[in-house]
Every structure is written in structure tokens, then in C-alpha cells.
Amino acid sequence: MLHFTRWKQIAIVLSVVLGIVLVIPSFFAKETVAGWPWFLPRAQINLGLDLRGGAHLLLSMETAEVRKDWLDTLREDARKRLRDAKIVVAGIGIVNNALQVRVANPEDADAALKELKGLAQPTGNIIRGFSGTDLEVRKSEGGVIIITPTEAGLQHRITDAISAAIETVRRRVDFTGTTEAQIVRQGSDRILVQVPGLLETAPLKELIGKTARLTFHEVHPSISAEEAKKTRPPSGYRIYPGADREEGDQLLRETPVVRGDELKSAQAAFDSQTHEPIIAFTFNGSGARKFGEFTKTHVGRPFAIVLDDKVISAPVIRDAIRGGSGQISGNFTVESANQLAIQLRSGALPAKLTVIEERVVGASLGQDSIEAGKVSAAIGGIAVASFMIFAYGLLGVFAVVGAAIHIIFVLAIMAVIGSTMTLPGIAGIVLTIGMAVDANVLINERIREELRGGRTPISAIETGFTRAYGTIIDSQLTTFIAGLVMFWLGSGPIRGFAVTLTLGIMTTVYTAFTIARLLVVWWLEAQRTRKVEPPLSYKPSVLKAGSVRP
Amino acid sequence: MRFLFKGVDFFPHDTRWKIIERRYIFIGLSWALAVLSAVLLMTRGLNYGVDFKGGSLIEVQAKSGGIDIGELRVRLDKLGIGDVQVQAVGTGNEALIRVAQQVPTKDLNEEKVQAAANEKVKGALGENIDVRRIEVVGPTVSAELKRTGVVAVVASMFGILLYVWFRFEWQFAVAAILALSHDVFITVGMFSLLWYEFDLSVVAAILTLAGYSINDTVVVFDRIRENLRRYKRMPLIELLNLSINETLSRTVLTSVTTALAVLALYIFGTAVIHGFSFAMLFGIVIGTYSSIFVAAPFLLLFGVKRDWSGPAAKSPSKSDAAGKGRRENVTSK
Question: In chain A, what residues touch B324 (CB-CB under 8 Å)?
Fold first, then answer.
């Protein structure tokens, strides 16, 4: 244990130099580092939001809405398919999260089943090796066919919806002029939005909390919403509530004429006559064509502009609108018009997002946390160092050097792998300062014990390192297990703690067995010419006769 | 300056304290603490933080002067948003405000109704008070975090159990896990007794403590195994006692170094990590206690394998040499 080959010594020294070089950029401002020549490392430790200040929002998607949308689309597709196949449908509806289709002629049931099976799409999960279809289509009694979305199919839809939602949220956040926002998926149906420097989250929540699904619907030509409420609305029509008191409920055709995703642009503007805030929009080519045809055939009748299933206005068509541009008016303020314009431009969310967790830290508190972290690290470090030097003298100094290098290693690795430093992360580092010297305590106590046992100093040091090795691995690995569990299950700040803890344990074992030992070896070599004195004081073993020792 | 070179060997060595013989004192003490924890947890429960209870936490600071907590409390109570707790922290110019999870209404869902309550609080703070931190946790997340916390603690204990089993024998693993559960349980009981806030960072501390408190136990177990190979005929009681005494300096001193670092966190850290550092500090103390007084008596209870020849065949020769060295040393004096 007390021998290092030349190349090993060089490798250890180089590892320390590399650690120091890699940790340097983290102590400079980002702008300074960006200007460094190419051969210098530039990776820095990121500061977490709890240290630099900012907002952390966890959004959850209403997956029930994704399922409902899917079933709505399926209903239209099923209707169309059966119509094309000339099968008469008696009824079609959504019951218990499944689509039920009843054919008029029970003899047609088999043909309909065959048609509807064509709706199912293969879905697979490469990782789990699962393959199947996204729909389960089966025949029930009395010419009824039931189409149920499978779990895999739904999961696939949710995954797609989340990806689309992330894009939409990103566009909306970008429109606010915020840079550096991080928007990532979390779990299967969640999105994590982190915006550094943001303290007032209400506007942001307003902006991303709305689905902003804009649709243009045909109003039922003869039946009013009030009449429809008394009876049942006719097939294909639904009552949409008004967005506010002025705008009454409307009976509208469920399939919209044009959807918001066919908008080319949307801007907040003012009406030239009333001077009220409005939203001016333009459709893209196909949207303009559809809208033009619809308005041509419906002159003199009202149509409804619907936002998130609420009617915001229902103007009467005076003329065919061919250019594809128009405006939406309805009780807007300048602010809400602006907001809606942003939402329309960035596209609709596939389903509603709710904020289920919000953590906002002001920059001043973050700064205080950094200061407090520095102070506790410094004082903890000094206390531990003093104790080690007091108890173990020269070997204590070696341990302290090892612990200092351990901190450098942890920071260097964090910079290289681009992990984030959080407040619990600082706590983790302070904690590992104490734990780093544990290994040295075990070694040094063992050396003392061997000295008391009558070994020569060199032999005692040798045995001390060898014997303590197994104990150190055992004791550190248990903490490492806990750290891994934390990393695996934890979120945000806890993960930051787990990172520094697990990294710290690895570097602790490394420094105790290379740095501290190498320093001992160098010291012994320097002492070779002189008679070596044991570097540890010890009380010689005085055993009384009849003690337990054999 | 000699001690600077050699250090001071201040810890008593060659102690022969009859720890195992007096095990009933410690077992009694541990049982008393465990029962007290159980009673507290059943009757009083834990003071869950927003992470586990849901609702919001708002940290505020006065721009100048202090905060009149009583007056602020009165002001916030008038808002009609249910239970609002105001607690002074720091040097008197900071406070933590906790707003309970609001009940959703017909128009406002859980998110909106909580946000509205937070806005009311912010509005009522006045000009002189700044908001420094807001944490809002919805009921889905708080339930999930609670579940994750329990799963994490159980999973890491299970991992540690497997590891100790793999490295030692099942008796050691079971004794270690019992000592560990003792530490975790009493620490949680302490949070109930002192009514300190129990949040996610405390769970992190408990996980770390689980990993750390086993360190000392493993050091003792390592020595027990070493001595089992060396002294094949020594009665188990004596052997356990010898092992504990031999490792006493190690067990205590490793804890001291870590406790020093954590103490710095406890004293100089911000309110955010106060619970964390307290749990760690208390955990280190109880973990050291259990490593010395609780873990080994369990081994006595389960009994251990005495024949260690076989897989570890190479170490006995070394131990014999060391043993001989010692005997010669003793006789020469």
C-alpha cells in the first residue's frame, strides 16, 4: 500500500491539476469566460433557481381532455367511414370513455365492424417491446359496436400532446420576451417551466393557462339556444355558453368551419370606428378558402367565434369574406387583446394545463442563500480542519489537503457534466466535508491501533491503510445507496442534494486512498535518511494480566 | 509544537466498558424513546410543510425595520382565507406566512383559488414588506411527494439491507436495519415533539442519515467480523464488547467531524435548510448511539456464525501475525 509507481504518481498529480483547471471557470462571470481562448475550459456550474432567483412552475395536462378530443375525432371519422361504406347509422355517441356505434340494420353489423376496425392504428413501444393497436373494436349485442381506446394508444396520444404543448408553451413564453426559460417534460403528462429572474408569475400563468383553441362555427339556422335547452339539441349540434353576460348561449354545429390552427397571423389592434381593442387576424390559404366559401353561402346569417368552447362573439355575415382576414371583437381590454393575440399566434394547446406546483424565489433571497452557504462551508471546513490537525497532526494535514481536493473534484465534475448547484446541493457539499475526513479518521485510528500493537511506524501505516480500506468502502457505499435512491426518486432541489452527495462520496474515497496516501509516501521518502519517528502520537498498550485479550 | 506533527491522542483507548453486559439499560432507553415517538406520531402527528400538506408558503422581508408579527397576523386573519400562520424567522425582519390549501369553488379550480388567496396576502402586506419566496403545492403533488418520500426511505433501507447482507451475514443485516429504523423513527418522533416543520428537505436529511448512521454500525460490524476470525473461542458477549470498545474512538470521532460540518450549516444556514440540518445533527447523535449501544445487542439476540473459514481464508494468517505481535509486545513489558 505504501508504494506508488512513478506513472501512478504522475497520474494522481495530473488528476488534481485537471480538477483545478476545470473548476476555475465557475469562479468567473459568464461573459468573461465566453471570451477565453479555445483551449481553456469554459464549462461552468449552473446555479439553480433557488440561488439565482426565478420561478419554477410544474404544469399538469388534463389527460381526460386528450381522451375526449380523441374520441370526438373518432366519432367524426367513424361517421364518415360508415357513410362512405353506405352503412346506415342509428346512433353514435360517447359512453364511459368509449365510442358506441349502433347500426340501423343489425345485418350490417359485421360489415360495420370490419370498416371500423380500419380506424385502429398500430402502436408500439420500442423500449417495452409492446405492439398492438391503439383501439379495441368489438361487437356488442343488438348491432352495437364499441370502440375503446387502449391504454397504450392513450399514452401515445398523451405523449404527442405533451410534445405539442411544450412547443406551444415555449412560443408563448418567448413572446413575452423572456430569454433563458427552460421548458422540459417531466414524467408522462407534465411540463416543467423554469424562468430565471421572474418573480411575478400571474401574467405568465394567465398566458400558459389558457388552451386558446379558436374555432368558427355555423349557428343553427332556425332553433335558438333557449329552445334547444327545453328539448334536446339536434344531432351534430351543441349548446355553447357565452363568454360573458352580454354574449348569450348559442346553438352551434359541433364541427367547426375553420379552426385556429389555420390562422396565419393575429394582432391586437383597435377598431377603426368604435376604437375598442380588437384582434385582427388572417387565415392561411386553405383557411381563407374554407372561410370564403362558408361566408358566401351564409350571407345574412350569424356565425360564431368560439374560444375554448365559449362564444366570444356571433356577428352576422354581411358579405362573403374572401381575403381571409377579419377581426374579432368582444369585451377586450388592451391587455387581454394582446394576450389573446399571443396565444392565437403561438397556437392552441392540445389540452388544458394546470399549475400544480409553483416555487418562486427572489434574487435577493438567492444571494443570501449563497452567502449563507459560503459562510457555513467556510466555518464547517475550518472547524473540521482544526479538529483533524489537532487530533492527527501531520496525518491530519494530509487529510485536510485531501478534503480540499475532494471539494475541487466535486465542483469540477459538476461543471463538466453541467449539473445544477442548488441550496441543498451546497448543504450536500458541506456535509461531505465532514464525511470526507471520516475515511482518514478510520485510517489514522487504525494506524494508532497498529502502533499500540507494537508495529514499526512504516508497517503500522501500511497496515492501517490496507485494513481500513474494506471498512471505508462498506461504510461509504451505504450512504451512496441512499444517495442513488434520492437521485432516482427526488425532484428539483432534492436531486441537487443527491448529486453533490453521491459525487462527494466517490471523490472522498478517491482522495483518501490516493491523495492522502501519496502525501504519506512522499513524506516517508523525504524522511528515509533519518530515523523515522511515528507520525502519530499513541498511548502504548498497557495490558493488565487477566484482561480479555488472549 | 510536537503535537502539530503528531496530533493529540486524547481519546481513551483500551477501554473495557461493559456495554453489552449492561445492554438492558440501553434497550430500555431505546424502547422508551421509540414508544414515545409512536405515541407522539399517533396522537400529535407531524407538522407537515407545504410539500406534503399542500397550500402555500410565502417568505417576506421588511424593507426597513422589523415586522410586527402580531399585527401582521391580525391583518391576514381578516382576509377570510381560512387558517393563516405567521412565523418570525431570521433577525426579526423576516417572516414565513403559511396559507392552507383553499377549497375550490364552482368558478375557481384548486390552482386559481390558491392563487387568489396568495394575491390577497400579497395585497395585505403593505408597502414596507417584500415577498422573497413563494411556494405553492397543489394537492396532487403533495400527495405524490408524500408517497415518494415513504418509497424513498423504504427503498434506501432495503438497498442498505441487501448490501450489508451481501457483505456480512443476514444477522448483521437485520441488526443493522433494526438499528437504522430505530434512528429514523426516533428522529421523526423528535420532529413531532418539537413541532418542527416536516418537509421535503427533512426527508432528504433522513435518507442521508439512513446512509450515514449505518457507517458507524458497519465499522463496528467490520471489527466484530475481524475478531470472530481471530478469537474463535471467545464467548460472543465478550467478543462484541471487545469489538465495540476497540472501535469506540473511530465511531465517535467520525461522527464528530461530520457533526462539526453540519453544526455550521445549522447555525449559519438560512431558514430554508434549518429543518434539514437539525434532522442531520440529531440523526448523527442518535446514529452514533445506536451503533454503539443498539446494533451489537441485536447480534447477540440473533447469534452469529462462528466459523469464518472458507471465503475469507486469506485473512486469518495476517491476523495471526498481528495477534502474535501483540502478545510478544505484552510479554516483553
Answer: none
Give B110's contacts in chain A (Cβ within 8 Å).
354
Cβ contact, residue pair A423, B137, below 8 Å: no
CA distances from A487 to A182, A492, B119 (A): 20, 10, 34
Q: Is there a contact between A429 and A412 (Cβ–Cβ < 8 Å)?
A: no
A277: CATH: 3.30.1360.200
Chain A CB within 8 Å of residue B115 CB: yes
Residue A88 inside a domain? The answer is no
Q: Of B48, B71, B318, give the one whose Cα is nearest residue B202.
A: B48
Residue B127 CB: number of other CB atoms within 10 A? 6
Pick from A383, A476, A494: which is nearest to B204 by CB? A494
CATH number, domain with residue A446 = 1.20.1640.10
Determine, for residues B208 and A479 on separate chains, whether the beta-carbon distance falls below 8 Å: yes
* C-alpha–C-alpha distance, residues B162 and B295, integer Å: 17
For residue A299, the enclosing domain spans: 213-327
Of A327, A352, A372, the position where a domain reaches its end is A327
Residue of A nearest to B226 (CA): A467
Same domain, A378 and A300: no
Distance CA B190, CA B250 (A): 26
Q: What 3-state DSSP class applies to B213?
A: helix
In this structure, the answer to whether residues A321 and A368 fall within a common structural domain is no
Beta-carbon separation of A60 and B140 below 8 A: yes
Same-domain pairing of A373 and A230: no
* Structural domains of chain A, count: 2
Nearest chain B residue (CA) to A455? B325
Same domain, A372 and A482: yes
* Domain co-membership, A309 together with A380: no
Cβ–Cβ under 8 Å, residues A349 and A168: yes
pLDDT tens track, chain A, 550 positions: 677 888 989 999 999 999 999 998 888 888 888 888 877 888 888 888 888 899 999 999 988 888 888 888 888 888 888 888 888 888 888 888 888 888 888 888 888 888 888 888 877 655 555 567 888 888 888 778 888 888 888 888 888 889 889 988 888 888 777 777 889 998 888 999 999 888 888 888 888 888 888 888 888 888 888 888 888 788 778 888 887 766 778 888 888 888 887 888 888 888 888 888 888 888 888 888 888 888 888 888 888 888 888 888 888 888 888 788 888 877 788 888 888 888 888 888 888 898 999 999 998 888 888 898 899 999 999 999 999 999 998 889 999 999 999 999 999 999 999 888 888 888 888 888 888 888 889 899 888 888 888 888 888 888 888 888 888 888 888 888 888 988 888 766 678 888 899 999 999 888 888 888 899 888 888 877 666 677 777 766 554 444 444 4
For residue A514, the 8-state DSSP code is T
Contact B115 A364 (CB under 8 A): no
A317 is a domain residue: yes
Nearest residue in A to B133, CA atom: A361
ipTM: 0.84
Please tell me which of the candidates B7, B137, B325 has its beta carbon nearest to residue A454. Answer: B325
Q: Hey, what's the cell of A63? A: 389527460
Closest residue, chain A, to B18 (C-alpha): A548
Quick check: B185 and B32 in contact, CB under 8 A?
A: no
Grid coordinates representing A76 are: 367524426
- In order of their start, the domains of chain B are 48-137 (3.30.70.3400), 142-325 (1.20.1640.10)
Question: Do A385 and A321 belong together in one domain?
Answer: no
Flag whether residue B88 sits within 8 Å of chain A, measured between CB atoms. no
